[in-house]
Structures are given as C-alpha cells and as structure tokens.
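anyone seen this seq b4? input:
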Amino acid sequence: MSAKHLDLNLRHLRAFAAVAETGRFTRAAEQLGLAQSSVSESVGVLERTLEVRLFDRHTRMLRLTQAGEELLPRVLRLVADCDDVLNNSREIADLERGHVTLAAPTLQAALWLPGLMQDFARDFPHVRVTLHDVAEQEIARLVRFGEADIGMVTVTPSLPGDLRSRAFYTDTYLLALYPEHPLMNKREITWSDVAKLPLIGPLQGNPVRSALDRALGERGILLNYAHEVALPWTMLGLVQARQGVAVLTDAVRDAMRWMKLPARPIHRPWIRRDMALITRKDRALTPGAQRFFDRIASAKR
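predicted toks r here
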C-alpha cells in the first residue's frame, strides 16, 4: 500500500457512504452533523487519493460512477466493522462485558469469595468471574503463566519479581483443638505451649507455614509437625479425628465453627499473617478485572 493511501481515515469513508446514500452533499452533511464543505472536502480527498472519480456531478443530484458503485459495498462493510469495534470497545470500557479469573486458597474460595462474587455479579452482570480454588503454593504460578488474572496469596519474601502485589488483609494465627484437649483448660496458650505438641500443619513450601516458621524462627521457636497435608480442610478433619492440633489462620474460623472445633488465639508472640492480591507487572487488567480487583481489595472481612 502506498503512503498516500495511509492518509485516508474513517471520516472520508463515512462521507462517501453518506453522499452515496442521500445523493446530495447537503443531506449527507445533515446526516453526519457536519458542514457541507467538510463533507465535500472528504469526498474530494478520497477521490484524489484513489485517483478515481466516484460521482458524476449533476445540477440537482449526484450519481455514482461505475468505480463508485464497485467501491461502495466495500466501504459500507468497512464502516460497519469499524463501528462494531468501537461499540465493543465502549462496552468493555463501560464494564458491560468481560471475563476475569481469580486464583484463591481453598478456604477463602469456599467461605468468603462466593458472597463477594454474588454482589459483583449483581452490579456487573455481564462480567464473568471464574474462580480457581487451589492450594496456596500454586497461585503465583497460575498468575505468572496467565492462567489467572488475579491471585490471592500470603505475603512472603519469595514472591516472584515479575508480579506486583497489593496488601489488602491481615489476620492472625490460631490453634484448632478438639473439645477435650488438655489445652482447653489453659487460660492463655503461648507459642511455647504449641511447640511442645505434635502438630498438624501445611506442607513445606506452603506460604502460610513459611511465614509462620520464619516469624517463630527469629524468636528461637521451632514447631513439631507430626502431620503435613496440602489443604486446611484435611487439617481440620485430622483434628476432628483427634490426631493432633492444628495451627491455621483466622480465615478458617468459620470452618472450625461449622466442624464444632474450638479455636484459641496463640499469644507471646502475637503473630500476624498479611495477604496480598497479585497480578503480572507486564499485563494490564481489563476494566472488568480491575473493578473486581478493587472490589476484593476494599471488601471488609
């Protein structure tokens, strides 16, 4: 394509289509909301650029030349395609449609996110949300490889450098017991008490465990993991079966209540767990995904 053809734009094509439809520059100008001189100039630019006459000029009417008749269907298709692109872009920008994928730990996915997703669907019914409920150590990988737009993770120093994070939630660690456990009678449970017990905990490499072990290790406290499992639901099931006690975070309190397992805070030291939303640094979120990201970040827990 020669450089001069690149000077054409949608305005020139719309003017040609309108004049062809109405047969007059004045009526085409009214239809487009432009001055007649602007429409005449646009058609003239198109003719000069293509080096062909598109209309036979008569006193009262314009008539398409053979070249104009051959060009008109192509121009109408092109203008319609451009309008479709522009309309779809506006719909996306206005959050009328779209898709967002979130990867979240299984407990948050089961206990907290469904209600938030329900509210979001009510406000933005044409933005589809897909939820991946996975073990937390899988979430960063899903975001890095584009399988999820947004991830929900525990903040750790090992977060890959190609991800950006925004802290949005802080909770504390607690102890899940069965009702007749001896520690139920203790007024205050400390980490020194917990260190003496065989624990049910996450697998090595789990971010929740890594953050806890790092905080306790700085204070010279080591925990004794008798059972290591992938999912919090399994940890609670083992506690319910009297196989030990489990250290989890406050995010599982509702699940413990449902399983009728007592939850006790652990003191001295008081250790917190920070959670963050992660996205890829090199990929901007769509408007719908950004709105969902903001909804999670500002939600009250």
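The first helix runs from residue 10 to 22. Residues 83 and 89 are 10 Å apart (CA to CA). kinda curious what u guys think
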